[in-house]
């Protein structure tokens, strides 16, 4: 299945409105606001590279920022365009965005591409393009899908270990081995550190956007609104603790250009 075929079937809008998705979105938005405060020029010129259906683009545009969104999948882009006419949109691949000039944006989000690009070389193309179009002193926020979450849920919780082992999908220390046939490429914190070093990006802070939320979907759905609101505040308060970082499903790293 190609990436476009996947997102033509997958409802990204719905994912971020489920309770586990709301944890990810609200914690990430709080982190975005924290990072934005460190940039003096307001409102900001923001690039959302791999914008999906525009959940973050639209929220930031409604706050008054000048937002440009780039998205590979045509269907996602059409959904985004139908929601907010003030977001500038382009269809494009995060690895090559020649239609955007150097040193243009105060703040760049790279929230989708690094999930799907395989290996350091392909991820670095996206990071280098994001760095090129971001102003010196600006901030890039990069989101990753995490290796341990994948192994714990897919291999053990969902009982696919034998299948993954048979196809050679795990190293001896249980790091996933993704191929071009796989939709996702999972990383560990050491991988993120290595990519930042190769891209010459300074990591300011790293958070787990959802922490244990993806392991607790049923429990989150059973919570009262008061309990659920408290859980979101728990994750906001604890999202950068080292004990939590590597095991959540999504990690967001803020880097200074």
List keywords for this structure.
single chain; 257 residues; 13 helices; 46% helix; globular
In terms of topology, how is this protein built?
Blueprint: H1 3-9, H2 12-15, H3 19-36, E1 45-49, H4 55-62, E2 66-71, H5 74-83, E3 88-91, E4 105-110, H6 113-116, H7 119-133, E5 134-145, H8 147-157, H9 161-166, H10 189-199, E6 202-208, H11 217-222, H12 225-238, H13 242-245, E7 250-256
Parallel strand pairs: 1-2, 1-4, 2-3, 4-5
Antiparallel strand pairs: 5-7, 6-7
Helix pairs in contact: 3-12
Q: Taking all residues together, what is the mean pLDDT? A: 92
User: What distance lies between the first and last C-alpha atoms, to the nearest angstrom?
Assistant: 35 Å
Put simply, the count of helices is 13
Helix/strand class: alpha/beta
The fraction of residues assigned to DSSP E strands is 15-25%
Strand order of the largest sheet: 3-2-1-4-5-7-6
Radius of gyration: 18 Å
Shape: globular
The percent range for helix content is: 40-55%
Summarize the main sheet.
Answer: 7 strands, mixed
pLDDT below 50 for ≥5 consecutive residues: which ranges?
A: none
């Amino acid at each position: 299945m190609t990436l476009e075929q996947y997102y033509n079937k997958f409802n990204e809008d719905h994912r971020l409105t489920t309770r586990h998705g709301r944890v990810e979105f609200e914690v990430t938005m709080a982190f975005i606001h924290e990072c934005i405060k460190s940039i003096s020029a307001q409102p900001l010129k923001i690039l959302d590279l791999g914008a999906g259906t525009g959940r973050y683009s639209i929220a930031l545009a409604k706050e008054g920022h000048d937002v440009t969104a780039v998205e590979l999948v045509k269907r996602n882009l059409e959904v985004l365009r139908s929601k907010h006419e003030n977001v500038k949109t382009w269809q494009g691949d995060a690895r090559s965005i020649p239609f955007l000039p150097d040193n243009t944006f105060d703040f760049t989000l790279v929230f989708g591409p690094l999930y799907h690009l395989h290996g350091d070389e392909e991820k670095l193309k996206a990071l280098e393009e994001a760095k090129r179009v971001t102003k010196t002193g600006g901030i890039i926020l990069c989101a990753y899908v995490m290796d341990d979450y994948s192994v714990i849920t897919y291999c053990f919780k969902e009982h696919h270990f034998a299948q993954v082992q048979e196809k050679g999908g795990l190293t001896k220390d249980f790091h996933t081995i993704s191929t071009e046939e796989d939709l996702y490429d999972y990383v560990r914190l050491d991988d993120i550190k290595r990519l930042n070093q190769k891209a010459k990006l300074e990591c300011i802070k790293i958070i787990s956007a959802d922490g244990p939320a993806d392991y607790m979907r049923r429990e989150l759905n059973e919570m009262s609104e008061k309990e659920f609101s408290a859980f979101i505040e728990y994750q906001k308060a604890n999202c950068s603790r080292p004990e939590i970082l590597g095991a959540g499903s999504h990690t967001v790293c803020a880097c200074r250009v």
